[in-house]
């Protein structure tokens, strides 16, 4: 392609197109090709990460049950002020919705939803729906109160009105151990019913502890990998990667064998007369078991970033420090360790985020005191089927991770981290 000049002095291509326009077209084509190359990855991230996260977040605030299954009651309660019992029109709407809901076999969803907020509402809704279908004419108010005295309680109607909104904050409130009282005010739950705040705190403390232990254990391993001769370092690398070739379930159950009261480790301690037979240590089905097992499982995720950074540090730096009069300890602390901070940061962030969302290992070896908030999320997803509360807990956990990520970025700097 030959460049020419137009009459006004502008450089053009051989076909008369201005060179600036031609370059812009070329750049657009390159950007399009780049986008097409990363499009499969973007699609995968969208389907496997973004959509589930958005769906989880919506689960924590969506509240369609009362709104869609009891539309007549929802509309009739809009003008109710909440000071006295509703009028006859609301009870008539209640009978219609209960009858239709029982016929469509979906009234149980309303019963379950209201039962999350007030114990006993499942029995009230399902029992009333069965008897309301037999009512042929009014007045309905006296008949419904006779069917179940709960319909004569203003607090029950306040609950229904509050939960008739398409979106609710009830799940998020419950996820931080609060609830709405009969007046609609947010109050703390009884102390013996507060479980989620302590679980969040336990999760953060144990994740931080596991991260620190991984740093302490991984640093000398990574240092050996980076400084040993190639033949020995390759063998050590195989040992580091070996856990990846073993099932997570197998590794976790192995720790049960090792740490249980009659396990291998206790037997060795008794044989060495460190402890007596009656003083065997309880190291499993508690926090200790969770920390030990998770540290072992997540250790390679700390070793590999550290090793990749240490491998790039020239040995001549340490020799230079020694030649300038520093002793080995001083040169290691003041010269070598600062150059590995990026690897420590990358490994710490990786291990902390992985440990804060772990649930398989704590479920197997954690017992009651070693469970994390992720185990409670799994419980509500699989057993209680309270997906709204599970979504709220997951959303709060996601916010905590993002907050720690932002703090980490401000203090350390994500751009300063590297995997090698």
Task: Please explain how this structure is put together.
It is flat and about 100 Å long. Helix content is 67%, strand content 2%. Helix 4 crosses helix 6 and helix 14 (287-310) runs antiparallel to helix 17. The chain contains 20 helices and 4 strands. Strands 1-2 form a two-stranded antiparallel sheet. Strands 3-4 form a two-stranded antiparallel ribbon. The protein has 420 residues and is mostly helical. The two termini are 43 Å apart. The protein has 3 domains: 4-59, no CATH class; 64-168, no CATH class; 196-416, MetI-like (MetI-like fold).
How do the strands and helices of this protein lay out in sequence?
Elements: E1 4-5, E2 11-12, H1 19-59, H2 64-69, H3 71-76, H4 88-104, H5 107-117, H6 121-132, H7 140-147, H8 154-162, H9 170-175, E3 178-180, E4 186-188, H10 196-227, H11 230-241, H12 248-259, H13 264-271, H14 287-310, H15 316-323, H16 328-339, H17 341-356, H18 360-365, H19 373-382, H20 387-411
Antiparallel strand pairs: 1-2, 3-4
Main pleated sheet: 2 strands, antiparallel
Spatial strand sequence of the major β-sheet: 1-2
What's the CATH architecture name of the largest domain? Orthogonal Bundle
Q: Any idea of the CATH topology of the largest domain? A: MetI-like fold
Broad structural category: mainly alpha
Q: What count of helical segments does DSSP give? A: 20
Shape by Cα distribution? flat
Cα separation of the termini: 43 Å
CATH hierarchy, class of the largest domain? Mainly Alpha
For CATH, the homologous superfamily of the largest domain is named as MetI-like
Question: What is the gyration radius calculated from CA atoms?
Answer: 32 Å
